[in-house]
UniProtKB/TrEMBL annotation:
<dbReference type="InterPro" id="IPR029063">
    <property type="entry name" value="SAM-dependent_MTases_sf"/>
</dbReference>
<keyword id="KW-0949">S-adenosyl-L-methionine</keyword>
<feature type="binding site">
    <location>
        <position position="25"/>
    </location>
    <ligand>
        <name>Zn(2+)</name>
    </ligand>
</feature>
<keyword id="KW-0479">Metal-binding</keyword>
<feature type="domain" description="Methyltransferase">
    <location>
        <begin position="89"/>
        <end position="188"/>
    </location>
</feature>
<protein>
    <submittedName>
        <fullName>23S rRNA (Guanine(745)-N(1))-methyltransferase</fullName>
    </submittedName>
</protein>
<feature type="binding site">
    <location>
        <position position="5"/>
    </location>
    <ligand>
        <name>Zn(2+)</name>
    </ligand>
</feature>
<dbReference type="GO" id="GO:0008168">
    <property type="term" value="F:methyltransferase activity"/>
</dbReference>
<feature type="binding site">
    <location>
        <begin position="98"/>
        <end position="99"/>
    </location>
    <ligand>
        <name>S-adenosyl-L-methionine</name>
    </ligand>
</feature>
<feature type="binding site">
    <location>
        <position position="188"/>
    </location>
    <ligand>
        <name>S-adenosyl-L-methionine</name>
    </ligand>
</feature>
<dbReference type="InterPro" id="IPR052939">
    <property type="entry name" value="23S_rRNA_MeTrnsfrase_RlmA"/>
</dbReference>
<dbReference type="Pfam" id="PF21302">
    <property type="entry name" value="Zn_ribbon_RlmA"/>
</dbReference>
<dbReference type="GO" id="GO:0032259">
    <property type="term" value="P:methylation"/>
</dbReference>
<dbReference type="InterPro" id="IPR025714">
    <property type="entry name" value="Methyltranfer_dom"/>
</dbReference>
<dbReference type="Pfam" id="PF13847">
    <property type="entry name" value="Methyltransf_31"/>
</dbReference>
<dbReference type="GO" id="GO:0046872">
    <property type="term" value="F:metal ion binding"/>
</dbReference>
<feature type="binding site">
    <location>
        <position position="21"/>
    </location>
    <ligand>
        <name>Zn(2+)</name>
    </ligand>
</feature>
Length: 273
């Protein structure tokens, strides 16, 4: 286990359902199996991260398979990159939400290697749901700005639409380790944006630099979705546009039987300098 205490940075050991450090800080292992490593004094709000409505909308949308091509593309990248031998390996999914990618990768990657897959998110409700459903991964509540893992403990970090801090990534990733980052490419959900803005602006096309890492490869994955109204509303509720949508717009979208929307993703692979 690679968890470290968020208060004193000493390693944590599991003792009878309690994670303990040598300075006697303790964190309960919840009945679902996750651990909350977000001390109250580090919280900037009572319930940080995505709320339950966003989490439920994301789960219903992802469960219907609309982002399966993205999941498969990331999986084949990881499956080709991570050695398939008996070496013990670790993968961390930051901002993992309700665990759709984390759970799948844990199950599949474990078939051919000795790997521990961790999922981390600042939203406790999302982590609770993730841990309840996906027993093959280890989940914790924490911020990606203060990762509760020891230095150089991760072979790879996955970042799918999630905030990060380059300094923390560089600290926890092993030398030669990897980051796989998924970010929106220019036309991502442009039709959904068009419902909110008169002239929807494409996403920024600039290549993201992560301090301490170099870009190895960049793939672009784009495909169209034909969504029933209920799933178009779920998609809207997963995004920041939801805050700008009127009740009337949501009602109209929900009545739409075939809403067409483009997806457009960048999947970028970085290696530590
Ligand atoms: C757009 S969602 C993506 C979730 C998941 N990766 C997916 O693609 O389904 C972003 C996630 O980042 C989480 N998040 C926001 N700020 C965070 C932080 N500082 N540390 C960790 N997670 C954070 C949110 O709670 C949310 O689950
Ligand atoms: Zn401690």
């Amino acid at each position: 286990m690679q968890y470290q205490c968020p208060l004193c940075h000493q390693p944590l050991q599991l003792d009878n359902q309690i994670w303990l450090c040598s300075n006697h800080h303790q964190f309960d292992r919840a009945k679902e199996g996750y651990v909350n490593l977000m001390p109250v004094q580090h919280k900037k709000s009572k319930n940080p991260g995505d709320n339950q409505m966003m989490m439920q909308a994301r789960r219903q949308f992802l469960d219907a398979g609309y982002y399966q091509p993205l999941r498969d593309a990331i999986f084949s990248l990881l499956d080709n990159l991570l050695p398939d031998d008996s070496t013990s390996q670790t993968l961390l999914d930051i901002g993992c939400g309700e665990g759709y990618y984390t759970g799948f990768f844990a199950e599949k990657l474990k078939l051919r290697r000795n790997i521990t897959v961790y999922g981390l998110d600042i939203a406790k409700g999302a982590i609770r749901s993730a841990a309840k459903r996906y027993a093959s991964a280890e989940f914790c509540v924490a911020s990606s700005h203060l990762l509760p893992f020891s230095n150089q403990s991760m072979d790879a970090v996955l970042r799918i639409y999630a905030p990060c801090k380059a300094q923390e990534l560089s600290r926890v990733v092993k030398s030669d380790g990897l980051i796989v980052a998924v970010t929106p490419a220019p036309n991502h959900l442009i039709q959904l944006k068009g419902l909110i803005y008169q002239v929807p602006q494409p996403h920024d096309d600039s290549e993201e630099h992560i301090d301490g890492f170099y870009l190895v490869e960049s793939q672009r994955l784009s495909y169209g979705l034909n969504l029933p109204g209920e799933q178009a509303v779920n998609l809207l509720q997963m995004t920041p546009f939801a805050w700008k949508a009127s009740e009337q717009l949501i009602a109209e979208l929900s009545d739409n039987t075939d809403f067409y929307c483009e997806t457009d993703f960048y999947i970028r692979l970085y290696r530590k300098n």
